[in-house]
Q: What sequence folds into this?
């Protein structure tokens, strides 16, 4: 995934940072962001599942460091957020702990907790856990409020009586909870004197797949003035750094769709863009993130080369013929679809990214309804009831086919995978994984094929 990329007088900073103005109630909590401040948090989560011999546990520890870099002209504040994540799993009495993973993201956050989306926080490191949305006024603070954390998750907050500070509880309404029979609740304690969340307690359940219960805590460890020299370095260097990371990831994307003869050159160009940043950054957090990315490069390159090789075996070649049935027993043959653009979406219930992509596939089916385009869900669940459950809950508007054994024919190894087949029966393109622009990306290809016919 790619990432895109004035000091003001102190009185302006204090106003933006959430100190009550004459027009707003002092009881409405606001984050007190001040450039030059450094916050540290610690999060620990665990999920216990199964019984007896199938019992297990997995979890994560996260150390957060947040630097407030500057106020933005729109009233938000640029935050640089460092996460050190350590994952573990316990099964059959044995604990397996993975090496700590270091990641750096940026976020533009308003004093009321609104967060502007950017590529670095779309899939990891979202700061909503430590900077949840706050009520917009005293009325919401008294009765509750809601917001969209993601394109498929709604959070409902309600105030909780407390002896001191401001406490509120959030419950999650999401596609994930619907499909996996889950629930998620968090209780936040906001410290009005500090102007930040000081503690979070979470509980979760899941009734499908890994059936069990989870708990978690987040604690504010400290708020202090950052080293002023390092603060100036970070403010001066973070913009260019994230632009370089975005350029690197764009080259990686290009390598994934390059031909076998070009993929190595694309990867070399990607690494060159990343290494060129090394001399330009001096802040320790930026240096550490760059080192982590370069350390992962060998594995990234291996994966990219393998993916490009699999793609080359399929794209531009006649699609593998198939003869299968939909869930109602109706036969569907690829040969009978000649003259149409065919879109195959390979999925199964246990694939969270598959579920997340489905509203976009539904949108594609709607976009090309009545045109020579056939959209099919290609389900690989062993139990038909799992497929039917998802179809009903997601309101899928396109047919779902039984696809056991078909992923191998098309070289599918990751889910979701979308395969676009042209009117002559050749594979036009493959899209692996979730992307927020999936509907638009595939839609453009379909339109081009229809115009080309």
A:
């Amino acid at each position: 995934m790619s990432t895109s990329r004035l000091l003001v007088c102190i009185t302006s900073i204090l106003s933006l940072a959430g100190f009550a103005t004459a027009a707003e109630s002092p009881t409405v909590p606001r984050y007190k962001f001040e450039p030059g401040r450094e916050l540290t948090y610690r999060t620990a989560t665990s999920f216990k599942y199964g019984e007896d011999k199938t019992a297990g546990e997995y979890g994560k520890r996260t150390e957060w460091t947040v630097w407030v870099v500057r106020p933005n002209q729109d009233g938000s504040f640029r935050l640089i957020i460092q996460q050190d994540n350590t994952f573990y799993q316990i099964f059959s009495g044995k604990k397996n702990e993975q090496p700590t993973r270091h990641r750096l993201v940026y976020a533009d956050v308003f004093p009321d907790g609104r967060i502007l989306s950017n590529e670095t926080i779309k899939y990891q490191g979202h700061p909503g856990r430590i900077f949840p949305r706050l009520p917009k006024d005293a009325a919401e603070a008294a009765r509750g409020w809601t917001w969209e954390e993601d394109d498929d998750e709604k959070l409902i907050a309600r105030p909780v009586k407390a002896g001191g500070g401001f406490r509120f509880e959030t419950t999650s309404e999401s596609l994930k909870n619907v499909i996996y029979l889950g629930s998620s609740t968090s209780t936040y304690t906001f410290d009005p004197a500090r102007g930040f969340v000081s503690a979070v307690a979470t509980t979760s359940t899941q009734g499908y797949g890994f059936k069990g219960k989870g708990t978690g805590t987040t604690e504010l460890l400290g708020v202090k003035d950052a080293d002023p020299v390092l603060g100036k370095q970070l403010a001066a260097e973070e913009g260019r750094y994230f632009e370089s990371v975005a350029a690197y990831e764009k080259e990686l994307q290009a390598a994934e769709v390059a031909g076998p003869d070009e993929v190595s050159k694309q990867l070399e160009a990607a690494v060159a863009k990343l290494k060129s940043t090394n001399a330009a950054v001096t802040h320790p957090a930026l240096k550490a993130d760059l080192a982590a990315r370069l350390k992962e490069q060998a594995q990234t390159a291996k994966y990219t080369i393998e993916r490009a090789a699999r793609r080359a075996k399929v794209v531009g070649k006649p699609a593998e013929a198939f003869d299968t049935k939909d869930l109602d027993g109706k036969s569907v043959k690829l040969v009978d679809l000649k003259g149409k653009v065919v879109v195959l979406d390979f999925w199964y219930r246990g694939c969270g990214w598959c579920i997340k992509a489905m509203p976009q596939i539904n949108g594609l089916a709607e976009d090309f309804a009545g045109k020579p385009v056939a959209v099919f869900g290609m389900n690989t669940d062993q139990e038909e009831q799992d497929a039917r459950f998802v179809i009903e809950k997601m309101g899928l508007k396109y047919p779902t086919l039984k696809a056991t054994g078909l992923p191998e024919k098309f070289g599918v190894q990751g889910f979701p995978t979308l395969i676009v087949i042209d009117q002559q029966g050749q594979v036009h393109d493959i899209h692996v994984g979730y992307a927020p622009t999936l509907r638009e990306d595939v839609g453009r290809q379909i339109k081009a094929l229809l115009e080309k016919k």
